[in-house]
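Sequence only, no structure available. Ideas?
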Amino acid sequence: GKREEAEPLYRRALEASRRKLGREHPDTLAALSNLALLLDDMGKGSEAEPLYRRALEASERTLGKDSPSTALFRDNLIIFLQEA
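Reply:
I predicted one. Tokens follow.
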């Protein structure tokens, strides 16, 4: 399906962001979170969970615990864990 077509595109976007902006840049963290959301939606929770956690941990370090982006990443992880 379309999700399977999207997965390699999400992965390429994440890698490009990592190379160009760095592993903990807010845009890279957003790309990481987006890939986690896609994988979760595809039923690949075991692949998605570490990505959710990595995005949250890096965001807390770089943007702070009170950042709106950090709050979004935290909410994504909470929702994932509630549905697991």
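The first helix runs from residue 2 to 21.
Hope that gets you unstuck.
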